[in-house]
Amino acid sequence: MATIPNIFTDAAAQSFALCKWIAREIGLDVKTLTVDYYALIRWEDSLAAVGHSSKPFGPSKEGFLMYRYTGRRAFGLKYWSPGYFRLKAGVCYHYTDALDRTFKSYVQLLGGGCIGCRRVQTADRPHAFELILSDKRSLQLAASSEKDASDWLQAILQVVSQGHREDVEAPNCVSACLIQAANRLFICHEYLETNQVYCLEKANIQDICSVVIDPDGGPYCVLEFESVEATESCGDWVLYFESAAELYKFTSSLRSVWQEMFQVPLSCSELSDPVLLRHCSLQASKERTAKCST
Questions:
Q1: Cα 79 from chain centroid?
Q2: Closest CA to 235 of 225, 244, 245, 243
Q3: Which residues contact 221 (CB under 8 A, 6 or more apart)?
Q4: CB-CB contact of 229 with 208 (8 Å)
C-alpha cells in the first residue's frame, strides 16, 4: 500500500482512506499510487485575500433537496419533504421552490449555528447528509445523486470549517490538508471518525506557472496558475504552513516534480504585491500567535 509522508505509521486506516480516495479521484489503482507530500495547512484564494472574491464566506450553491429535522426539538418536521435550498454568504436558506423570494427558514453556518456536517448512512433515503445544529436538532438533506450530495457536502464543509477558528482566520481562510500525488495537488477535509475525505479544490501541477514566497521568509507561499480555468476558485492559491521548514519541504517536492515534467526549473519569485503581501504577513502572524497561545 502507498505510504504518506507526515502521517504516523500506526494510522493505517487514515493512510489507506486517503490513498483510496486519491486513487478514485484520478482513476488509478491504489497499489500503484505514490503520495509525494501531505501536510495540514490553511488555504485561501488570493482574490479573496485582497477583497475581490465573488464568493464571500465560502462557495455558493443552490438546488432542490429532500429534507427533514431529527432530534428532540424537531416537533412535526420529522418527515421527508421537498424544498429548494440556497447556500450564500455562510447561510443555508430554505425556500418552497426556486422562484420564491421569501425564505421559509435558514441555518446560519457561521457563528456557532451549525457545529458540523456529515454523511447519514442510516437515513431511509440514499445520498443523504445532515447539518448538526447548535439547538440539538439535525437538518437531514438528501440529494438526487451521489455527485450532487458530494458537491453540497464540500460547499457546506468549506463554510462550516471557517467558523471553528474565526479569531485567527480571515473569512476565506480554510483549515485543510494539502496532498501532492500523481502530478496533482489536492486540498481537502478528512474526517478520522469516518475515514471520509472531501475535496475542496484540486489542480494539475502542469498548470502552475510560478511559486511566490514571502521576501522575509514567512511560512506561506502563493501558487500562481496559468489561467483561472486551471482551478475552481477565482484566483491563485495562498498556502499557510506550520513552519518555514514545512514550506521548504513542500516547495522542494513541487519543484522536483515540475523539473521532471518539463526539464526546466519552476519559476520562483518574491511576493511584490503590497496589498497581498500585507494581508499574508498579517495572517501568518496571527497563526503564529494562536499557536503560541495554545
A1: 31
A2: 225
A3: 211, 212, 213, 214, 238, 239, 241, 247, 250, 251
A4: no
| Predicted confidence (pLDDT) per residue in 56-83, tens digit | 455 678 999 999 988 765 555 668 999 9
Nearest Cα to Cα of residue 223 among 165, 162, 263, 178: 178
> Taking 90 as the threshold, does the pLDDT of residue 46 lie above it?
no
SS3 of residue 132 by DSSP: strand
The length of the chain is 294
The C-alpha atoms of residue 175 and residue 72 are separated, in whole angstroms, by 32
The answer to whether residues 133 and 117 touch, using CB atoms and an 8 Å cutoff, is no
Torsion sign across C-alpha atoms 258, 264, 265, 268: negative
Nearest-angstrom CA–CA distance, 213 and 196: 32
DSSP 191: E
Q: Let me know: does 86 contact 93? Beta carbons within 8 Å.
A: yes
Contact 170, 33 (CB under 8 A): no
This prediction's pTM: 0.60
In single-letter form, the type of residue at position 72 comes to R
**pLDDT at residue 202 in the model:** 87
| Cα–Cα nearest to 20, from 149, 204, 181 | 181
Within 8 A by CB and 6+ apart from 58, the residues are 87, 90, 155, 158, 159, 162, 172, 174
